[in-house]
Write a structure and sequence with these properties.
Elements (H helix, E strand, L loop, with lengths): L2 H10 L5 E2 L3 H4 L10 H6 L5 E5 L5 H9 L4 E6 L2 H13 L5 E5 L14 E7 L17 H8 L2 E11 L2 H13 L4 E5 L17 H8 L5 E5 L19
Parallel strand pairs: 1-4, 2-3, 2-5, 3-4, 5-6
Antiparallel strand pairs: 6-8, 7-8
């Protein structure tokens, strides 16, 4: 392991805004902050917004700066990446930002019903192989999990360069009768670009420099009937 990573891991332990639970704290267990993020972490009642697979936390921090009336939590398993976002938030004295180092598979251990108002899934691994379908952050299993803690009128955003993931998610939502608020397979040539969507991470800038269009979906996953996979997933896997 590189010296730089070790230094970052050590500094991560000093950031009070970075939560790094042990495995046995969350495996088949509710983490101590579940249901208590407003009272015990942010110490306010502002709406909570998650970014799943946040990487370096660029999007999380940028949104938190734009919207101080909301709380933002970035989630990723890579501690060396989270270090950048956490360090920036601490140095800038941002009180509406937090980070969790964990796998998204454990997301239900962290949040109680109606505790989250919004979710961003930004440039996730598309998991194109059929054997990896259940790893897609917008597969039916994950969407069912998000719904357990998302407010009834809560919104989910998917921003990705992968057309396959975009159309797969759209088909899944349509076949399950979920409400799609907006969909475009070429965001920056659409009529919806605003101050939120125009926030660009390093990865997104790289995609755009290569001429790759960015897709966007905005949707709700209300109701209590479990979502299921599209009838035909063959066009969306390899």
């Amino acid at each position: 392991m590189g010296k730089n990573k070790l230094q970052r891991f050590a500094e991560n332990k000093t950031f009070k805004i970075l939560v790094q639970p042990e495995f046995d704290e969350i495996f088949n267990n509710d983490y101590q902050l579940k249901g208590c993020w407003h009272a015990n972490f942010f110490e306010n009642s502002k709406p909570i917004v998650l970014e799943l697979g946040c990487g370096r936390g660029e999007y999380t921090v940028a949104l938190a700066k734009k919207y101080p009336e909301k709380n933002f939590i970035g989630i990723d398993i890579k501690g060396a990446r989270l270090w950048r976002g956490a360090k920036t938030a601490v140095e800038d004295g941002m009180g509406n930002v937090g980070f969790i180092r964990t796998r998204i598979e454990f997301i239900k251990s962290f949040f109680a019903g109606n505790e989250v108002s919004e979710i961003w899934v930004t440039f996730p691994d598309p998991q194109l192989k059929k054997s990896r379908l259940k790893k897609r952050l917008t597969c039916s299993g994950f969407l069912n999990a998000y719904r357990e803690f998302l407010a009834p009128d809560g919104i989910v955003h998917l921003k990705t360069d992968n057309q396959n993931l975009h159309f797969y998610t759209k088909k899944l939502l349509e076949e399950n009768g979920m409400e799609i608020l907006y969909a475009t397979n070429d965001l920056y040539n659409s009529d919806i670009v605003d101050d939120i969507l125009s926030v660009k991470t390093k990865y997104e800038q790289d995609y755009l420099s290569k001429g790759m269009p960015i897709t966007y979906l905005k949707f709700k996953i209300a109701g209590d009937k479990p979502l299921v996979e599209p009838a035909d997933i063959e066009p969306f896997v390899i």
